[in-house]
Amino acid sequence: MNWMQVEDRAKADDRCVLPIGSVEQHAYLSLGVDMILAERVAVEAAEPLGVPVFPVQPYGMVSTFLDFPGTISLRLSTYAALIEDVLDSVYRAGFRRIVVVNGHGGNTPVAPVFGEWLDRRRDAQVKLQDWWRAPRTMAKVLEIDRHASHASWMENFPWTRLSGVEMPAERKPAVDLARLARLNPADKRRLLGDGNYGGLYQRPDADMLAVWAVAVEETRQAIAADWATGRADREG
């Protein structure tokens, strides 16, 4: 879209979507898994509604993985300021109902920023949609295989794999999460090894596409419904 199209769209429908992700280790998968999935699920969910999706904010808060090369982390203060600036910008463009589609669990501490921002922007609404752990999506994951975790099969989609990289065939034992939480980044790397938290590294694409279909539909519902505005949307 160009700026004129954005201006017209915001006048007709004040909803927009902001995907946020992370650049971090995902074992044998792309470092960009979280940003790739957040943007893709947002685009596929929003397209039939005609709701614009802004480009993904790729970097998040991921200090826990800083000893894995390629990981990029922002401080909480930096991230909070960045998110506020982005929200202010889309608000200035005319958008008042904003869905933040999050692809990285480490970003969730920024949630209180939305509350503070909404105190200053009382005619706006913000939804935080953690797409992968939304109820129906996570239920589908667990229906397929209850052993699902970071950098395991549940993040291994055709569009997060790297060409020529073979996946281990075995099921990795689950990591001790309580122990992991109290370690520094160097010790976390030693405990995790390749970075997978436990489970299979890959499942058949039919399983992944089944999860994806649920995730797209659930994200679409978050964009379309449950806005406390009293207005009817043609698309929603």
Describe this structure in words.
Helices cover 40% and strands 8% of the residues. The chain has 236 residues and is mainly α. Strands 1-2-3 form a three-stranded parallel β-sheet, with helices on both faces. The longest helix has 20 residues. The radius of gyration is 18 Å and the shape is globular. The two termini are 21 Å apart.
Low-confidence stretches: 230-236
SSE topology string? HEHHEHEHHHH
What is the CA-atom radius of gyration, in angstroms? 18 Å
Give the class from helix and strand content and strand pairing.
mainly alpha
For the biggest β-sheet, the strand order reads 1-2-3
Strand content: 5-15%
Number of helices: 8
- Estimate the global geometry from the Cα principal axes: globular
- How far apart are the termini? 21 Å
Kindly report the oligomeric state of this protein.
single chain
* Number of extended strands: 3
Which range best describes the helical content: under 10%, 10-25%, 25-40%, 40-55%, 55-70% or over 70%? 25-40%
Major sheet attributes: 3 strands, parallel
Query: How would you state the average pLDDT, rounded?
Result: 95
